[in-house]
Design brief:
There is one protein chain. Helix content is 82%, strand content 0%. It is built from 2 helices and no strands. It is elongated. By secondary structure, the chain is mainly α.
């Protein structure tokens, strides 16, 4: 009985051999996200710094 349960569990827990994933797609998404964050940071750096400083000043008193 335990062997049958283990066999069924193994079939459903491991992906088929032909599904290797989409590595280039994930790399593209990661690089594009980093580019967007870097680009937005250039425009919002002063405002974000002021926002963080203001929030910390309110918390610390």
């Amino acid at each position: 009985m335990m062997r049958k349960i283990a066999t069924v569990w193994w079939r459903f827990s491991s992906p088929p051999d032909d599904e290797r994933g989409d590595v280039p797609g994930w790399v593209l998404v990661t690089v594009m996200t980093a580019g967007l964050v870097g680009g937005l940071w250039e425009f919002a750096d002063g405002r974000l710094t002021a926002l963080l400083s203001d929030a910390l000043a309110k918390v610390t008193g």
